Amino acid sequence: MGGCVSKSNEEPMYRPRLGMGCCGSKMGRRTLSGRIVSLHDLVSIPNRITSSGKSKSSCVFTQQGRKGVNQDSMIVWEDFMSKDMTFCGVFDGHGPNGHLVSRKVRESLPVRLLSFMHSIHEEDKLKLLWEEAFLKSFNAMDKELRSHPNVECFCSGSTAVTIIKQGSHLFMGNIGDSRAILGSKDSNDSMVAVQLTVDLKPDLPREAERIKQCKGRVFALEDEPEVPRVWLPFDNAPGLAMARAFGDFCVKDYGVISIPDFSHRLLTDRDQFIVLASDGVWDVLSNEEVVEVVASASSRASAARLVVDSASREWKLKYPTSKMDDCAVVCLFLDGKMDSESSYYEEQRSSSVESDESQRTEPCLQRNATVRSSSVESNSCGNENAETDDAEKEKATEGEQHWSGLEGVTRVNSLVQLPRFSGD
After folding, report:
1. Counts for the chain of helices (H) and strands (E), in that order
2. What pLDDT does 116 receive?
3. Buried-most residue among 72, 113, 320, 377 (CB within 10 A)?
4. Other Cβ atoms within 10 Å of 383 Cβ, number
5. Which domain holds residue 41?
6. Could you tell me which residues come within 8 angstroms of residue 402 by beta carbon, excluding any fewer than 6 positions away?
7. Do residues 56 and 120 touch, judged by C-beta distance below 8 A?
8. Domain membership flag for residue 392
9. pLDDT of 322 over the 50 cut
10. Lowest-confidence pick of 156-170, 310-324, 366-380, 387-401
């Protein structure tokens, strides 16, 4: 039969197929032509973008903060399984290898979702089937990271805020403190912001209870009382600023989990766009401010960049002595329309001077007390083998740098310090 809730004249849904095992294996999906596409071939798939730019119905933008390598990743994959389906995700890495973890999740998680999804013949089964697919794929993704031969995840991890838009259905799976919001019109045709996901912080009652039952500890440091963190029972480490994440296996036995918070929403004609972003945005901009920026953008293709520009300005105003965090933004416009190519490139050119200027000044850093953090502190873990040549270059750039969250010399921290474990 046709794809998920697809009409008879739409292309049928393709079925993915995984290769042998999860770590170091060839994971892929079967296309409509029957060819198996491995993860290495994902870059050739049409309507899939993972870097700053735009697609048929979305724009994406990321900007490195002032703490080191950009650990944020993002993806928009249109025509995900059928013509009416789009997958979007933002992944915020933390820890010495957070950039590798977030990229691995960006590449593998959508394919795993495909692999667990089956043909849908009845719309009333959509929610249950997608919930099962989200739960299974997030679990498989974390298992892959645990045993991955080239990505050390013991003290590194990533958030994930992901959505599937299928017709008027919106399915969401979220771990960590990245966030998705909806820009919609109220009865007076005024734009309003609707938060779609919950920031899964350690002080949420259900999260704190689970962590404490597993012998983990939850408390904030004296100099940042608004930042609850997860600590080992026997050591004041790692101080993880979220209750759910991929990776971070040093605290997985103490209440931190990778089970997504799944939800479903029916979209209406009043709903205009969806914004996914890492906490580098949400630490300084409210939901309402982000909706206002997107709704007032001179061109839709520039909306994601304008959100990051606004966040950058707010970081300088609110936290002038702290280094700005990485930012990643995905804007999905629900009517499926974008601007002309000319308006997009004109916007890009006009912003280049401003972007260059903003990168010149370097504020001195002292430790920030914001509620989040996406970056990381570590030392010896940075000497692990990298998955690719690019990863090796990034590690070489970082060199033997000592990452000390307590000194606050490089980042607003998702981790405070690495636990004191033996070498093995």
Report:
1. 8, 20
2. 86
3. 72
4. 12
5. 16-200+258-358
6. 379
7. no
8. no
9. yes
10. 366-380
pLDDT in tens, 13-38: 343 333 333 333 444 444 333 334 45
CB atoms within 10 A of CB 352: 9
The CATH number of the domain holding residue 75 is 3.60.40.10
CA dist., res. 247 & res. 94, Å (int) = 10
CB count within 10 Å of CB 380 equals 13
* Confidence at residue 177, expressed as pLDDT on a 0 to 100 scale: 96
* 8 A C-beta contact, residue 80 and residue 96: no
Give the whole-angstrom CA distance, residue 310 versus residue 302.
12
Residue 204 clears pLDDT 90, i.e. is over it: yes
Q: 74 vs 71, 106, 164, 328, 360, CA distance in Å? A: 10, 7, 14, 7, 25
pLDDT top residue among 322 and 188:
188
In whole angstroms, give the CA distance from residue 241 to residue 225: 12
Angle at the Cα of 66 from the Cα atoms of 243 and 275, rounded to 5 degrees:
55
C-alpha dihedral, 108 to 148 to 140 to 104, nearest 10°: -20
- Look at strands 246-247 and 160-166 and give their pairing: unpaired
Write the CB contacts of 341 (distance below 8 Å, at least 6 apart in sequence): none
DSSP-based helix, strand, coil % in the chain, nearest 5: 30, 25, 45
Q: Is residue 365 part of a domain?
A: no
**Choice among 44-58, 333-347, 373-387 with the minimum mean pLDDT:** 373-387
Q: What is the distance, to the nearest Å, from the Cα of residue 376 to the centroid of all Cα atoms in its chain?
A: 15
Q: Is the pLDDT of residue 332 over 50?
A: yes
In a domain, residue 111? The reply is yes
Q: How confident is the model at residue 403 (pLDDT cuts 50, 70, 90)?
A: very low
Q: How many residues does the chain have?
A: 424
In sequence order, the 6+-apart residues with CB closer than 8 A to the CB of 95 are 101, 153, 155, 156, 157, 247, 248, 376, 378, 381, 414, 415
pLDDT at 35: 38
Q: pLDDT band at 348, cuts 50/70/90?
A: low
Token pair for residue 416?
């405070």
Number of structural domains the chain divides into:
1
Q: Does residue 118 fall inside a structural domain?
A: yes
